[in-house]
Design a protein that fits this description.
This protein has 104 residues and is mainly α. The chain contains four helices and no strands. The N and C termini lie far apart (47 Å).
Amino acid sequence: MDDLEALTRNYRITFLRYLPRHDEAALTRAYDLGRQAVAAGVSLLDILSIHHIVLAEIFRETPDEGAEIMRAAAAFFAEVVAPYDMVQRAFLDNKLDRTYRLGA
């Protein structure tokens, strides 16, 4: 199993645990998945693709719960991509600091 397959499997498992209860433990695990993905060099587009794959699977299995699933999916996805946002902000802040110090 390659890294993206493993990430997809873990994403699916964690999201399915989050859906019935919307608990903080599952959101924490989602955040951890995002951190691991950043560290492994997984692109944000790959994460988005995984999210849509898992969401499509769930909609096929539970089509009548669409609105609730979408609300939960948005919260879960935001937690997964939060580490990407932090890395980008740190990069941009560092870049701006260097530009300011160099007088460019």
